[in-house]
Amino acid sequence: MRKLNEYGITLSELAEADIELLRGWRNAPEIAENMEFNEHITSVQQKIWFNNLSKKPNYYFIITHQNNKIGLIHLNEFDNQNQSAHAGLFIAEKKYTGIGISLGASLILLTFA
Asked: Can you give the pTM of this predicted structure?
């Protein structure tokens, strides 16, 4: 499992053990309203989504700070011709917003990319 560490932040490759935690975050109204797909996600849908991640290059990481899993960051939809990809992130644990975690996680992911 891939782990990236810097700035007191760890990005850990998304594991099957984390998909229900992720689903809970994604179904929270304050997260869902900012997503392209903002309908309620069932456990079956989540499992299917996770199982399909390996079919093309995708990098999804759980963001951890001070031993607390607090959000998700990812790269997907790679376009090699244009050397681009889609990126996204959210911090699900409110006490970790506005303190630079998103910036630090983004810098780690950009360095990885």
From this structure: 0.92
